[in-house]
Structure formats: C-alpha cells, structure tokens
Write a structure and sequence with these properties.
CATH topology of chain A: TIM Barrel
Number of domains of chain A: 1
Catalytic activity (chains A, B, C, D): (4R)-4-hydroxy-2-oxoglutarate = glyoxylate + pyruvate; (4S)-4-hydroxy-2-oxoglutarate = glyoxylate + pyruvate
Number of strands of chain A: 8
Structural class of chain A: alpha/beta
Oligomer: homotetramer
Distance between the termini of chain A: 40 Å
CATH superfamily of chain A: Aldolase class I
Radius of gyration of chain A: 19 Å
Family (chains A, B, C, D): Belongs to the DapA family.
Active site (chains A, B, C, D): 168, 196
Strand order of the largest sheet of chain A: 1-8-7-6-5-4-3-2
Number of helices of chain A: 13
Order of helices and strands of chain A: HEHEHEHEHEHHEHEHEHHHH
GO molecular function (chains A, B, C, D): (R,S)-4-hydroxy-2-oxoglutarate aldolase activity; 4-hydroxy-tetrahydrodipicolinate synthase activity
Function (chains A, B, C, D): Catalyzes the final step in the metabolic pathway of hydroxyproline.
CATH class of chain A: Alpha Beta
C-alpha cells in the first residue's frame, strides 16, 4: 500500500508534467496491446462490518480462474469503486494482481473526477500491477463535458500513463455518452487502445468500429445483453457483469460468435438477456452479489447507501434465472 | 376516395363493434402471414404548393420496383402521415396499391390517437388494398399509455381489423417505447403478426424475439443503422428509410445476413450507418427528400412546419454519403 | 356544423394564402386583447358509448358559470382534442359559445400537426365563435421543431387567423418546450397575444415576461400548481385543470395574488398542489373526470385508449383531496 | 490540516458507530438552528498550476464580507469539491472559518458517494469549524437511489453528525431529485434542519414547505433564478452562485421579498435571470469565475477537465450581464 510520502512525491512530479505541454508520451511504434476477449468486472467483497474482505476476493478469483477469460476488470462500476478510499482501490488491485496468473490481463478502473487525480490514480494502478487502465468519463459536471473537454482529459491521462488506456463510457451511471467524434480523435493516441462501451447502442458501436478502422482501436461491449450484436458489428470482446456468475456461458457465447456459429449464438444470447438485465440495470450490484451467493461465489453485502434486495426483488431476480434455465 | 356517407356508415358499424366484448376476430388457425424482408417507408411527394403529387409518387414507386423489396410501408413516420387528411392518407394508399405488383406487400400506417379512429382508419386501409396495417402507438397522452392501456388499444384494433396488424414503436417521435410485456401479450393475438421497432435497442429486440418465440411473431428493425445487429438477434427484416435512396445496398445487406456472410455484411453495414443517421435522426424527412433528389427520385418539399435544409446542413448531409463512397 | 363543401372552399382560399408571402394580417394599432384571468380547460363529456355528450357539456358549463372566470379553454389537452374528429372539435366549440355569456372569453385549441391544417382549424374556430385560438406546438416531429420552424409555423397561423393567437407549450405531452427566443420573436407579431406555459419552470416564465415586457404580451400559467409563483414573476392568469373542480378556490387564489395578500395566497396555494398534481400529471384526465363526478359535475368516461382509474388509484386520488381538506 | 493518524482514529470510531443501530443522536429539544438568508457558494481559487490559492480565497471572502449574507456555503457544486482531495476540502473550510466573522454561518459540503465516507467527512467538517453540513445526494448509482436508500443514508449521517445537516438536491449534476416523500420523512429527524433545492421546480418547493410545515424544516432555493418565486411559496433563503458577483443585488432581492415589496422584487428578479443562468447552467463554473474576474474578485482557472470559455462564449456571457444593466 502506498504511504502518504510516496503519494506526495508522485503528486509533485505529476503536477509538473500536467503543466507542461501535451505529447511527452513516446511510443506509437508497433501495434497496440491486444485486449480482445471476455472480462468479468469483479465485485468488491465486504465483511458484515463493511470492510473489504480480501480473502473472499481471492476465493472468488480462484473460482473464476477456471474459465477462459482474457482477464479481469477491477474497480469498474460493479466494483463499487466510488465507495472505496484511494488506498483500498490500490490494495484491491494489488491483491488481484497477486492472485492472477501472469497471462490474464488486469484492467484497472482509475477514473476520478479531476484530470490530475485520474493521472495520479492511473500511475499508481500501473505501479501495483495493472496491465491497462480503464478510465470512466468524469461525470459530476457532465453538463460541461463536451468533446473538447473530454479529449483534453483523456489525452493528458494517456500522455502520462505508463500503461495503455481504455476509454469507458457508461451513461447509465454518468449521464454522459462519450461523443463519437471524441472517441475517433482519441483513437489516434498511441496509448489509447480501445473503449468499453456500456450504452448498448449498437449503431453507435458499429460506427465507432467503422470510423476507427485505421487506428488499431478495439471496442469492448459493456454488457452481456448486447454481446452477440456487438461482435456482429465488429467489437472484439466484452466486459460482462454476468460473467461473474455465468462465466462458462459468456465465454461460450464468445466462442460461438468467433467461430461463426450464429444460430447457436443467438439461442444462447437470448437466454442471457434477462439474467443480464437482472444483475445490471434492474437490480444493480445488490442483485449481482445476491446471484453470486447462489452460484457458489461470495457476494455478500454492498456498502451503504446501496441496500440489500427485498424478498420480492430477490424472487423476481431468481425468476429471471430459472425461467431461462440457469437455476 | 371514400365519401362522407361511406365514412359515416363505417363509423356506425364500428361504434357497435367497439362497445361489444373483445374477441369477434375469428382466425388463429394456421400460420400468420410472412412479413419478412426489406421495406422502404415511402415518402409522400408534394408539389410546390404542398398538394400531394400522386404522379411523382408513382414514378418513385416505379423506380423502387426494380429492387427485391418484400413490399412497401406507406404512411409510416417518413410518409408525413400526421400532415395528411384522412382522405389523403387513403388516397395515397390507393395509388400505391395500384402501382404495385400484387406480390409486393403493402403495409399501411393506420395509427391515430384514439382507438376508435385507429379502427376506422385500419378498416379503410384494408378496403383500399393494404395487406397489413402498421399501427403506431398513440402518443399525445404518452404519460398514461401504460401496458394495460396499450394492450387494450391494440387488442381492439386487431379484433376489428380485416387485415393483420403490425405493432409500431418509434420512441423518437412518440416519446413512448411499447413495453416488452405488452408486446409479449399482444403477440398471442391471432391477428397481430409482428412489430416494427425503431428504438434501436438491440437488447430489447433480442428479448422480444426470445419471449415471443412460440408465437409466430415477427420483428422488423425500424432503421438500417442496426439492421445487421437485428438480424443477428433474430429479426426477419427491416423498414428502412435509407432504402428509399440506397435500395440495392439495403437489400444486399439483407442477403449477406441471410446467407451468413457476416464479414461482408459488417463492412457494408458500417458504410450505411452515417448515411442512415443523416436521413433519419440527424436531418429527418427533409434530409431524406433532399437525398432522393440526388439519387434520381423525386424528393421535393415537405409540408410545413417541416423546413428545407440550410446550405450548411445540405453540405453535411452530402458528406455523410460521399465519405462512405455512395456519392 | 361545417359541411364538406364549406371545408373545401375554406381550404382553397387558405392554400392560396399560405403560398403568398407572410404579412397579410393588418392590425397592430392599439393594444392587444386582454386575456388576464383564470380559465378552466373544459373536459369533453362522453356517453357510455363514447359519443360526445353535448347536454352534459352544457350542464357543466352552467355550473362552472357561477365562478368569476375570465373565460374557458375548449379543446386544450384536457379536452381530449386528439380523440375528436374535426367536426366534433368545431361542434364542441359551437355549443360552448352558445352556452357562455358574451363576456366570457372562449379560447379554442386549434393546433394540428401541419401548418395548413392548423390554419384551417383556426379559421373555423373563429367562424364558430372562438375569441382567440390557443395553438399547441406541433409535436410528432419534435426533433425537427427548432426555433426557425416554430417561428415560421406560428407566424403563418397568426397571419391568417381572424382571431388573436395564444401560443401553447406543454412539454409533458409534446416533448417540446417552445424555445424562449422563439417566444420573444413571436411576441412581436400583432396577432399573437400571449402564451400558455404548462412546463412549470418559473425561471423560464419570469424570463419570458421580462424579455417581452415591451410587447404587450401576456403569460398564462398552465397549471394551478405554480399559479402563485407565476403571478409573483409577472404572469397574468392561468389555465388550470383544477378549476374544473375547485373553481372557487382557484379564483380565490387569483384574488389573493392580485390584491397582494401573499401570506394567505401561500397557504391556499399549498393546499392546492397535491390535488392539482392528482388531476394532471399523476392521474391525468381520468383522474380529473373522476373528481368532477365527486364534485357535482359530469366527468364520465374518457375515450380509449385512456382508461378508467383502478380502485387503488381512485383511493389515492381521493386522499390527495381529503388530506388537504377539500373532500 | 488533519494528518493520516487523526483520520485513521476518526474512521475507527465511526465504523463502530455505523455498525450500531440508528438513533445515537440525542437532541430534538428546542428549535432547530435558523438557516434563513442568502449564501454565496464560494468558488475555490486555483493558481496557474492548479494549486488551491488560499490567499485569493481569503481576499474574496474579505470582499464578500461587506454584504449582509447569512453565511457562506463552502464545497458546494460551485466549489469544485469533486476535484479536491479530502485534505484540501477540509483545509479550505478551515481557512474560510478563520476568515469569517463568528456570526456568519458556514455551511460545508460534506457529501461523498458512500455513507461511511460522508459521515467521516461530516464529522471532520465539524471539527474544522463548519456550523452545518450540506450533504449532496450520492449519485454514481443514482439508478438505485430510491427513497429507502436515501432515507437510510441521510439518517445515518444525521445520527452521527455533531452539527446540523442540510439536505442537498441538485439534479443537474446528480441526475437525481431527492424524492419529496424522502424529504418529508427526513424532515422529522432532529438533526436535519432543511434542504437546498437546486432543481428549480417551484411546485415541488411549495409542496415540500407544505408537507414539512409542522417540522421546523427550512427550504433554501438553490439558485437566484427562482429566488423570488421560492420566497413566494415559503422558502426562507437561497444559496446563489450569482451572489458571488452580484451580492448586493441578491441581498436586495431578499429584502424586497421579506418586506413584501413584490413589484420591485419582480423587476429585480427579472434582471437577474439571464446573468444567473449564464453563471450556472449555461457556462458553469468557468463562466462564474470569469465573471468574478470582471467584478473585482479572483476567479482564475478551474481544475481540469473543466475548460476556460472560448472567446465567443465569453462574449455571450458578457452580453447576459450588459443587456440587463449590470456591466
């Protein structure tokens, strides 16, 4: 864990860098890192007294390690990152890195509201072993986050990040869709390798693939509900909350898409839509964690103000899995 | 054209029917009519003084007749139906029926705000030769249009319609997404054969296909922007404004999807997204009509309050076609 | 009632007028008509078989005539105008005119989707006795209804209308807020006298009053929920659904505001908010009509697809009145 | 400034408290603290290298101290609190406390995403001299923030806060309107004294005043644009970004409202709407800070990703002040 002195020194250096002109990042030779594949965005387990339970985290990772995932997203929206301190965010990534085999990619969420804090967190994430940084759009002032502001923000972060950057657009949480023209501009940055798009607008996903086709830029679907459709229009993988509980099935859907077995893919995709909606939009992280408990993982409680599901909600959640033959 | 006396008699009969209990429609034996395929939603040509130009309408149809469309949608949103009188709506359908070969399906938009008016218009559309009625959700009181209200509305219409009914959900115009549970309930009606879904949410489209899989219910994508993705999740065709100008290409995309040539389909789909957005969401019917002028059809003016494009808009519109190699 | 021949002749004349340049309307000398005061937007009573019940309409008007209203709005959103035929719309206005004393203003809703139809309906409304036309924004293509389109639309209507025009912005139904800059431009037209604003944004209402202060332009609040606040920022009256059931109280609130008794006004306003929300946003016209039945008027059924309230809804509606001491 | 050891000890104690049952807060006897009046939400000045400029902060406070404000809001949305570290947030409040006369209330924004972090920050804010804590709704998971979750969150915070709590609803930033029923429930808590409501819906403000009338609960308008209207329906003051530049005028508007001079109040309110919108919704904090530079305060740059205004925007901003006679 980083002590306050290290932080302070990191900050001093970064302030200088942030004041200089853009363009310090020297690279661009050769292809960008390949991030294609399926990633579960891991949840952060908490004890009954709301402390991070690192033991349970490792147990979950151990179980998830049996599936052919490309890697893991840590501190995505499902990781309750806004509820963690900076130290906890880094410690969770540290532990995941230790628990993962070296060939699994670790994508660490490092987005903060300010550009400076995002740079600091990104650098720190690299130091504790993240392979790439997944950077959510700043959102509190989303009314001012036009293309120019976002291009400036991500360019600074990518300039100063020691690891590749993945853009992250999740309008359901942020109220903000990273504009396509900003994505296209940013795709030309040598240290920006792709985007996780959770908006579910497949026309937009196709357009991004099309307009970045000369940039070695990779698109990940942000949810299992539109995974097949995203593959069909050129996405190369997905970050899927559902993969925390139906890991085999999501990987199977990937395989069917990649091998062109579209009919079987369609049938499987159909059976995943309701369970996926249940653990995302419909019941959120409390729904995902409850389902993890059912499937042999540790879900456990969320930090407040997120609440446990009511008995009625739990029943509806279960029905979304049983009616599709998963429970 | 229907005279006022005929209308009056039609109305009297329908009032009686509307007051009786639901269920008069006797059918259900055998499969529903097959509506799979591509349909251009034809525009309504106007003269310089804003009269319907039936001659230009026929010329357009003659040119469009060279493509392997399944049929034509008349009086969809692109037909400016809210700007036409009831007589004009029927006369347009009459003329299209006369101009079309018998094997082309004619889907006529017959939605009105009230259930009663919708029934009347649907019956009249059948009388003038429509093969099926495409019924948009009522929208002025969309705050009250919950599932119960919409199920009641469509059931009444389907009960009394002499021709099959296609549901039509177009939230960009109506502010209302026909709820999935209402669609599932309505799919069981013997006289409701499918839905045109213009919302572009492919997760929703997949779910509708999945939950109506035992009902012989058909889903048409409402726009060319997500046509490939819709096929991938089980749609059987599309109603595509873009087919009014790039008819061959939209039919080609259909063929590539149906024959499993997904890579070529993806490349073609990509090049259609910007042109499609340009003639729909971005520049609306004025954009579509302007483009028709470029492609050898008669576009002409819209009725007020729709305005012509400015020179700047026209240039942006053109760029969306030239940058994708279509002009 | 207008026969088809009259309509046809009206249309011919108007087509010519619409093709000519703007500016035919000759007036502008002297002050615009004073529309200040309270108006109930009357409902349209229907029989059990959904015919317009003109007798009940007259009975309601007779009872409402005992309150010091400035006049009545006929064919506003609460009048279910989208469910009426053109003939019914005119006949309702005809009957209201006959039932009203000459000193009560009759504001008739004459908005249609097309400019041409709106002009025709406005002219006809004048012919059957409307004192002013209240013209709702066209809405089906609201994505294209920018300021330029709306200014053109309303200018044409005002140019050709024999009676003064009141703008009508009701975003809850239309998805469209008439932009302030368009309102300011239109306020300069000699035949446009004011706006009914139902959006409830009192900052906007204040700004409209401020920016039209040199134009003799009058603002009416579109709902009783923000009537006091609207008076406080310069509105001169209100069109209030609630006045159909609590007519004395709404007129009392007007009087308290006009005489500067703000403390009593505030207390009364407070007790009207929940009942007002109940008969508008919360339960819509079915809620308003049910309440009319309780208060000694004829409410009766709505036309489909509007549905009656459930027993639970009815109870909640009643509670909003009883808990504020009105039932 | 709090060192890490103090933080750690604070946290330990709070964890225990958070695990216990609700209800530790012992008070309720006597009236709640009076928060009526006008508050500028102070901006956080930054140097050219984006460090907090405490000297400029004090200079601004010194100048603002000449107006009859009730107090100051520190770390509201205009304070760029999401861009500050915890240490900076506390240090800013510390400095403001030192700079303020004892009779000026200091309302400190202490909202964080998690309940635990919010409690910790609230306690710390009390320790550095805040008179009350203004707690914004958590927002990243706004889809899950129903009344139950928010009631639980605020109850925990109020139970454990040594200083009174003011609720803070600002949907433009958070995508979330604190539901009226939650406000009513929370108004009964002895340590919750009021709400700052920035939504601008005066019907809602009136309803909150009405339904909490027996609770000694105070409502502050969150913007100068609807200040007069808010007073008219029962608010007792306002937190107004505009007061950072037009402090005398906002206080004058308060005085006119409190003394019942509604006509003059209306005229003044009218002239404040455009300037207010300019420094809030239209141009945000960059607009507010630019205006502060014009009016003799130190505005200076924002932290990234907020950007400076373009020359065009600056001109439009200036026009909103000059056209109303303020520049």
């Amino acid at each position: 864990m980083l002590g306050p002195r290290v932080w302070s020194s990191v900050r001093q250096g970064l302030r200088r860098a942030l004041s200089s002109t853009v363009g310090g990042w020297a690279s661009g030779e050769g292809r960008k890192v390949d991030i294609s594949g399926i990633y579960p965005p891991v949840t952060t387990p908490f004890t009954a007294t709301a402390e991070v339970d690192y033991g349970k985290l490792e147990e979950n990772l151990h179980k998830l390690g049996t599936f052919p995932f490309r890697g893991f997203v840590v501190q995505g929206s499902n990781g309750e990152f806004p509820f963690l301190t900076s130290s906890e965010r880094l410690e969770v990534v540290t532990r995941v890195r230790q628990a993962l085999p070296r060939d699994k990619l670790l994508l660490a969420g490092s987005g903060c509201e300010s550009t400076q804090a995002t740079v600091e967190m990104t650098v720190s994430m690299a130091q504790v072993g993240a392979d790439a940084a997944m950077v959510v759009t700043p959102c509190y002032y989303h009314g001012r986050m036009n293309s120019a502001a976002l291009i400036h923000h991500y360019t600074k972060v990518a300039d100063l990040s020691p690891i590749p950057v993945v853009l992250y657009s999740v309008p359901a949480n942020t109220g903000l869709d990273l504009p396509v023209d900003a994505v296209v501009t940013l795709s030309q940055h040598p240290n920006i390798v792709g985007i996780k798009d959770s908006g579910g607008d497949v026309t937009r996903i196709g357009l991004i693939v099309h307009k970045t086709r000369r940039q070695d830029f990779q698109v990940l679907a942000g949810s299992a509900g539109f995974l097949l459709a995203s593959y069909a229009v050129g996405a190369v993988g997905g970050v899927c909350a559902l993969a925390n509980v139906l890991g085999a099935q999501v990987c199977q859907l990937e395989r069917l898409c990649l091998t062109g077995q579209w009919e079987d893919a369609q049938k499987l995709q159909h059976r995943l839509i309701e369970p996926n909606t249940a653990v995302t939009r419909r019941f959120g992280i409390p729904g995902l964690k409850k389902t993890m408990d059912w499937f042999g993982y540790y879900g456990g409680p969320c930090r407040a103000p997120l609440r446990e599901l009511s008995a009625d909600q739990e029943e509806a959640l279960r029905l979304d899995f049983t009616s599709n033959g998963w429970l």
